[in-house]
Amino acid sequence: MIYEDLVEKIHQEEYPVHSILPSENDLTDLYSTSRETIRKALNLLAQNGYIQKIRGKGSIVLDLKKLQFPISGLVSFKELTGTMGQQAETIVAEFTLKKPDSNIMKQLQIEKDKKVWKVHRIRKIEGEKIILDKDYIIESQIPGLTEEICKRSIFEYIEKVLGRKIGFAKKEFTVEEPTAEDYKLLDMEGFHAIVVVKNYIYLDDAALFQYTESRHRPDKFRFVDFARRMGNA
What we know:
The mean pLDDT is 87. α1 (2-11) packs across α3 and α2 packs across α3 (35-47). This protein has helices at residues 2-11, 24-31, 35-47, 77-84, 102-108, 147-152, 154-161, 180-185, and strands spanning 51-54, 58-61, 67-70, 88-98, 116-125, 128-138, 166-176, 194-203, 208-216, 221-224. The chain has 2 domains: 2-61, Arc Repressor Mutant, subunit A (Orthogonal Bundle), CATH 1.10.10; 67-224, Chorismate lyase-like (Chorismate lyase, 3-Layer(aba) Sandwich). It contains 8 helices and 10 strands. It is 28% helix and 33% strand. It holds the Pfam family UTRA. Keywords: DNA-binding, Repressor, Transcription, Transcription regulation. One of its GO terms (molecular function) is DNA-binding transcription factor activity. InterPro entries: Bact_HTH_transcr_reg, Chorismate_lyase_/UTRA_dom_sf, TreR, Tscrpt_reg_HTH_GntR, UTRA, WH-like_DNA-bd_sf, WH_DNA-bd_sf.
């Protein structure tokens, strides 16, 4: 009941986005209950994406208007933010063409004589830097990339300019501790975890052409999928 009451107050903006909920002691007095019960209610709020507990600050109300990334879909950042109607910006932090190191050779399943576009892009939404995309693209598969293309949309360039068709992707999801690079390039103050999505992206002829490590600040994103139960075995 306490959890549901707090959810209702968040929806009604009695506790607006980015505000701090009353302390555990204040909530204990407000609801005339034990501190343990309040902690259970706050844990439920955190688990369901309503609040983020930050050491030394308290429980901060999160923005419920999260970008929804379809797990089984393949959509560009430009397409996604265009449908959500949010202010977005891409900053190209690095753009080079070079021979791959051993890790990228392994991820892209290529030999060392192949050249790879290395593209690191910071994604800003509503003024906050919340995604770091680290793209590695086989140059022989996708020639002619420029920094300006990377700032706009690589997928759009592949499909509309090169006339190639993107087929499918394999994705791996993990939650990790942020690196020094994450803290340097993203607005990560108060966050102690980052969602990492590794994408192996293929053309429609099943040729692997891109490996992307996409690093997401956890408060702004919801990964969604639709699953159908098959018949009983």
